[in-house]
Amino acid sequence: MDADREQWGTRLGVILAVSGSAVGLGNFLRFPGQAAQNGGGAFLIPYFCALLLLGIPIGWAEWTMGRYGGKKGFHSGPSIMGLFGRGSLGRYLGVLSAVIPLAVSFYYVFIEAWTVGYFLKFVTGGLGIDRAAPVAAQTATSAAFYTAFTGASRDGVLLTGDSHFTLLCWVITFGLNLWLIYRGISKGIEKFCSWAMPAMAVCALVVLVRVLTLGTPDPSHPEQSVLHGLGYMWNPDFSKLGSFQTWLAAAGQIFFTLGVGFGVIVNYASYMKPKDDVVLSALTASATNELFEVGFGGMITLTASVVFLGLSGTAAAVATGSFGLGFNTLPVVFAHMGPLGNLVGATWFFMLFLAAITSSISMYQPAAAFLKEATGASHGRAVTILVGLGVIGSGLTLWFTRDGVFWSTLDFWVGTFLIFVCATIMIVLFGWVFGIERGWREAHFGSILRIPPLFKFVMKWVAPAYLLVVFAGFCIQNLPGAVQQVLGSWAAKLAVGLIVVMIAGMTLAVQRGEKRWRAAGQDLDDAVPSDGDPAPAPAGRAGG
Amino acid sequence: MTTGGWVLMLVSLAVVWGLTFWCFYRVLTAPPEDQVVKPPSDLGG
Q1: A11, A41, A273 member nearest B9 (Cβ)
Q2: Given an 8 Å threshold on Cβ–Cβ distance, is B37 in contact with A446?
Q3: DSSP-assigned states of every residue in A331-369
Q4: Contacts of A193 (CB under 8 A, 6+ apart)
Q5: Considering only CB atoms, which chain B residues are within 8 Å of A42?
Q6: For a tag on chain B, would you pick the N or C end, based on fewer CB atoms within 10 A?
Q7: What ipTM was estimated for this complex?
Q8: A59 pLDDT above the threshold of 70
Q9: Chain B, window 1-45: residues with a beta carbon less than 8 angstroms from a chain A beta carbon
Q10: Which of B1, B27, B39 lies nearest to residue A280, judging by beta carbons?
Q11: How far apart are CA A542 and CA A283, in angstroms?
């Protein structure tokens, strides 16, 4: 039985959809800051090591898991991880892969609405930054707009205040997302990503060309030039390679930029045809993401900032984090670009919007698939339930806006911590429970490329070990502070409570789904080998 | 911009642009799905 018979229309379609899911705001805002703070060009050495040993191998595993699940008629993380985990434990651990994308969508769509708001502002004349004023005053104007637009001053201001501009942007964003999900895999997500990804590349090229041709706008400040900007990003500090922090930051960046462990890749790949290639597709999606991150993100953001704000101004902006750089500093930079500044700014924020929406639709789809699978709901009903869940989750995000505590708590525990956990579970299930030999055969079924045999060792040993070391380092660095934040803030407690409720609710849904799947005679414990899996199933695996 | 910066930037850009173009070339010139069924013989095909 296959309750959800949707499929991707073309090979390119699924690649663009997964690429779109991976390319997000972090490619343009987080990556350059991480590189500049961790050795500049030298950062790219641990970065590419992590890409090769962590990102691409886990990506291959997830694509293979997804397509295999689709062959068995499953499309959600819990059911697919049940196949690979040979029973209920895998399914219940797989709840994370349904919780993560939905919970992240609660705040991601809010941030996506910022890009819509900034785009509309730049189209209609900018943020009102006075070019003749001192830079400090310009930055203050930009920061004031950011604080008002994001509601950072106090809780409830976005819903009860005088201006409902942010709310309007959120409604537009949320509605567009759900409409695309309602349209379905091929007519909605694939069709949208098929033009959004090329459009994003064109926007990025336009902004890149403008930034690289800025020269030295102010001859009295020769250090504020394109070359110095590129130097700030790329000049290597090899001494940083001796620091564990640099390797940790590089692995973390690769891990999050590729979207592994998120629950999206397994879901998207499950809609592939049984004989579709996964090896080249996974590699192409990763390469596309890297093009946007290194090829565009690494060339545009900091270069533009240095040209107009200088090295010290840029360093201060980087220290404020990705959002400070993107939404506080860059509007000031665009204001300095003269008559074309608003056009470049609008292009930039439209590009960020495309990057964000191609990611956010990928967050709703796994939840929609899970709702359909677990409850037997129709597509329309699943989307209706999603609207309800989205309004509740995003409603909380829109209310508890003070200092961004609510959504940053969700981001830490779901968008970072649980993703580590989920990715670790996935690669262990693939390499150790399902078995690396069987997984290797499954990956190569229908493949256009052959993975170098060395990667069998990498996928079984290196990637899990690498992941565990990075996860341990991450926990040591961040867990104490995160726990303190939860203990000290009601908004943070509420965010953690929401996560717990979601995990509990989805666990109950898995329990209900198990009964449905068994009653329908589905092979939920992977007792019957599928096409391309000539190996007999090990005895005793049908339990669960 | 130092020499090291130039080298790392150009190598990085060459890697990401080259890999992306090569991948898309392979995707767009690959035979239709129904002609690619079996894995290589040494992989159990």
Answers
A1: A41
A2: yes
A3: HHHHHTTGGGHHHHHHHHHHHHHHHHHHHHHHHHHHHHH
A4: A13, A16, A17, A19, A20, A358
A5: 8
A6: C
A7: 0.91
A8: yes
A9: 1-2, 4-9, 12-13, 15-17, 19-20, 23-24, 26-28, 30, 33-34, 36-40, 43-45
A10: B27
A11: 33
Q: b/e for A76-96, b at 16 or more Cβ within 10 A?
A: bbbbbbbbbbbbbebbbbbbb
The pTM of this model reads: 0.93
Task: Give the gyration radius of chain A's Cα atoms.
Answer: 23
Summarised one tens digit per residue, pLDDT across range A65-106 is 999 999 999 999 999 999 999 889 999 999 999 999 999 999
What are the CA-CA distances from residue A353 to residues A106, A113, A164, A208, A214 (Å)? 16, 8, 20, 17, 24
What is the C-alpha to C-alpha distance for residues A137 and A79, in angstroms, rounded to an integer? 55
Distance CA A365, CA A352 (A): 21
Q: CB under 8 Å to A504, separation ≥6 — which residues?
A: none
Q: Which pLDDT tens digit goes with each residue over A269-308?
A: 999 999 899 999 999 999 999 999 999 999 999 999 999 9
Asked if B9 contacts A234 with a C-beta cutoff of 8 angstroms, the reply is: yes
**Cβ within 8 Å, pair B43-A441:** yes
Which residues of chain A make contact with B36, given a CB cutoff of 8 A? 275, 277, 446-448
Tell me which residues of chain A have a C-beta less than 8 Å from any C-beta of chain B: 11-12, 15, 40-42, 44, 48, 227-228, 230-231, 233-236, 273, 275-277, 280-281, 283-284, 287-288, 290-291, 293-295, 298-299, 440-441, 444-450, 532, 534-535
Inter-chain contact B4–A280, Cβ cutoff 8 Å? no
Dist CA A383 CA A361 (whole Å): 12
- Tokens representing B15? 């890697």
